[in-house]
Every structure is written in structure tokens, then in C-alpha cells.
Amino acid sequence: MNDYVTAVLDAATDPDLAGDKAERLRERLDLAGLLAEPGERRRRPPREAAAGARRRAGTGTALSQLVSEDR
User: Which of 5, 34, 45, 64 measures 20 to 30 Å from 52, CA to CA?
Assistant: First the structure.
């Protein structure tokens, strides 16, 4: 199983595997119903929205505090 997962990730990320090996893997994924179809392209959020999210990201309760309180 680990070899298969590694092959899937390699085929998805390594441009040198763009030939037969990747195509065979795509065929297997398609037969198993696991081949994802390309979806709608997403757009980046506005710069101001991303900046606001970054500012708010560190304002919650620290995970270490939640763990120490057994929550």
C-alpha cells in the first residue's frame, strides 16, 4: 500500500514521470473510481482579506493551553 501511495504522489508531482508509468497509474485510479476530474479554477482572495485572516490567525487559545487544561 505504501508503495502505491508513493507512486500516486510521485506521479502527481514529478514531471519526469509524465510518460507511461503515470499513464498506467491514471488508468488504475480511473478503474477504481478514484481519478479526480479537473475542477473549477479557484481565484485568490483579495489581498486585504488574506491580510485580515493572517492577523486573526494567532489570536485564539494556544493548543498547549487546551491540552494542559484537558479540553
Answer: 64
Read off the pLDDT of residues 23-48 as tens digits, 9 standing for 90 and up.
Answer: 877 788 888 888 877 788 889 999 99
Do 29 and 35 meet the contact criterion of CB atoms below 8 Å apart?
A: yes
**CB neighbours of 36 closer than 8 A, spacing ≥ 6?**
none
Q: State which amino acid sits at residue 5.
A: V
Distance CA 22, CA 7 (A): 8
Q: Does residue 71 or residue 33 have the better pLDDT?
A: 33
Cβ within 8 Å of residue 60, ≥6 positions away: none
Roughly how many angstroms between the first and final C-alpha of the chain, as a whole number?
35
For residue 7, the enclosing domain spans 2-31
* Domain-embedded: residue 44: no
If one compares 17 and 33, the residue with the highest pLDDT of the two is: 33
